[in-house]
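Pilot study result, target chain (204 residues):
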Amino acid sequence: MRWLWLHLRSRRVPLAVSSAAALITLAWVLSLVYTESTTINARTASLTIMLAVVAFGTTLSGADDALDHTASVNWPLRRAGHLLLATAAITALLSLSTLTDARYEPFALVLRNTAGLLGLTALGAAVVGAALSWIAPLAWTLIAVLPFLGPSTDVRVQVASWLTQPAGTTAATACATVLAVTGLLAYALRGGPLRPATETAPDR
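Predicted structure:
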């Protein structure tokens, strides 16, 4: 288990978990104080999940890009496991709210949005690197929570605002699934792009 702990520390996972927990708790507290609903609305939940996912996005690369691509390690399996554990961690943190009076639910919506946004983040990490992987989930979430986008029978609207569509919406679920699977495969198989040595070398 020592290698696992060293891997988590090298990827700054403890910091990401702490940041995600703090953001989720803050949104929960604000909803508890300022609303009377027992269910945190989809827009607030989506913004909260996006921020938690962005926090985990920083863990998708290590300090040494060359090490992350060495053939001596089964990186595809390790990267896939990393993403699945991140999904489980965020979902678990959100699910703790079901023990309180303000809840992130239904669970299907929480899982759909977490998996979709993490897949989008992983796809960004594979294409432009972990440092910029937050751009796509942030942009799509800000579009999805626009006031004039909400539950709709129009498939185009359902895809554009899949984050705020009700659980069970076929187009929204399909969009999230495609993002999750595509991001998982791209990141697991490719990892992040190699950065110039000047960016990863330690300061002297």
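One observation from the pilot: The longest helix spans residues 13-34. A full batch analysis is planned for the follow-on phase.
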